[in-house]
Structure formats: C-alpha cells, structure tokens
Amino acid sequence: MLWNATAIRGYVIEASDGSIGTVSDFLFDDAGWTVRWLVVDTGSWLSGRKVLLPVHVLGRLDADTREFSVRLTKQQVKDSPDIDTDRPVSRQIETNAYEYYGGSPYWGAGYYMGYGFVPGGVPLPVSEGSMRRDDGLAAAPSHDDDPHLRSVATVIGYHIEATDGEVGHADDFLIEDTDWSIHYLAVDTKNWWPAKKVLISPRLARNIDWIGRVISLDVDRDTVKKSPEYDPATIVDRDYESRFHSYYGDLLPGERSRPANDRSTLLGD
Length: 269
What we know:
With 269 residues, the chain is of the alpha+beta class. It has 2 domains: 2-149, Roll (SH3 type barrels); 156-266, Alpha-Beta Complex (Photosynthetic Reaction Center, Chain H, domain 2). The chain has 8 helices and 16 strands. The protein has helices at residues 5-8, 74-78, 91-101, 128-139, 152-155, 221-225, 238-247, 263-266; strands at residues 2-4, 12-15, 18-29, 34-41, 50-54, 58-62, 67-70, 115-118, 122-125, 149-151, 159-162, 165-176, 182-188, 197-200, 205-209, 214-217. The strands form 3 sheets. Strands 1, 11, 12, 13, 14, 15 and 16 form a 7-stranded mixed beta sheet that branches. Strands 2, 3, 4, 5, 6, 7 and 10 form a 7-stranded mixed beta sheet that branches. The radius of gyration is 19 Å and the shape is globular. The two termini are 30 Å apart. Residues 109-143 and 251-269 have low confidence and may be disordered.
C-alpha cells in the first residue's frame, strides 16, 4: 500500500510492550530512492532522545488509530546505539545500528540480495525493483558520511525543475510499505500552473542539487503539465498507476522513463 509520508509523521510507535514515541522523519537514499531508516522522537520517555529504526523491524501501519507497530521491545529500543540525528549519518553508524538490530547493511550482500532480517533471522522478501536499485549501492564507494542518505522532511519543499524551467515544489512522498521504496514525489505546481498537483516518479530525477534545494527532471514542462492530476484526498490505486505508467511510457519502479509517443491520446484529450 502507498502511504503519504507527511500523513505518517506523528504516528505513535508501538513496540511489543508499549509506546516508544512518534514518527519524526524518514531517511532515504537518493541513489535507490528507498527509505532506509525511521526516525523516532521518544519524547519524555527517553528525555527527548531520537532513535533510528531500520525498515526491517517495522510492522503494521494503522490509519484509524494512527499507530505504527515495530517488532521490538521497549528495552531493545532503549539499549540501541546513541545517534545524533541532527548530524549526517555515517556508514559506520549505520553498520553499528544494523549489527545491533540483527540485520545486514543494504549496501552489502545479505539485505540487498532480496531479503531483510528481523531479530531472530526471519527473512522478509524485498521487491525485484529494490534489488536492482540496491545493486548500484552495493557497488558504490563507501564514505565516512553517507552522501546518499537524506531526510524526507528536508526534501519536502525543494524546487522541481523540468528541462525547460521550474514546475513547482516537492509537496510529499508516496511510499510503498512492503519494501519502503519511494514510488512518487507529489509536486505542487501552484506557482506555475494553478490548482494542480501531479505525481512524478523519482526515476525521472536526473540530478539533485542539495545546496540549491532543486530536483531536476528528465522531462519538459509541457509533459508535467499534461500528466494525470493528483488529488491527495484520494488513494492512488491501480487505475491511477496504470494511467501514470502509460503516460510516461509504462514506467516501472526502478526503470528510466521512455515517454509515450502520444500522451494526449492516453489521457483522453
């Protein structure tokens, strides 16, 4: 199921024996466009300490109760490595956290090869698209600070530029909760094309300027303008995704777009 990242923020995190805090943020890698860590604000329980939880310990999201279950006890969370979430997260910090939680880093063999692991060694299947994206990460050089790990909350608000000019700003992320891949960026075009929001696949992003806060796309403004309109109040179902993929050339998660020859026909114009 696809979830809006902004809607999940604030959900209560429920361990197996009680609440541990609320969802504060998500950290994703910009090479694979996949969420790798959940940032939890523990509030008064751990005196305002924030902790990172890897996605392989995440359980069920409940929109009715606004709760998010995790496969951990409160003591496991309390004893987890101290991490300063206000500073860049290094590969060493990630490695330490994975060792503690019983998983394998996504950039090495074990996790990216198709399975994540929860404490106890229970395998969780990962989509083929995520496996392909993670192959690139496994081959990438390692750095002290992971240059690909980014905050969802920080990227919301970034300017979105097509090949011939700006089209709006990032308004939200749509995340698949089976493998935590980012399927779409919700783009608000109101400063350019009033009263319309659209979805853009992160596979259309050719460059991200972290200093300038700009995401550059592989498509032109007219392509974005004519794309299927997105209503945040509705669920992105298979029908919408079918129209979206047809419009951008049957775009599949993890693959580059091959634009369709006649988009107006596909949209019924």
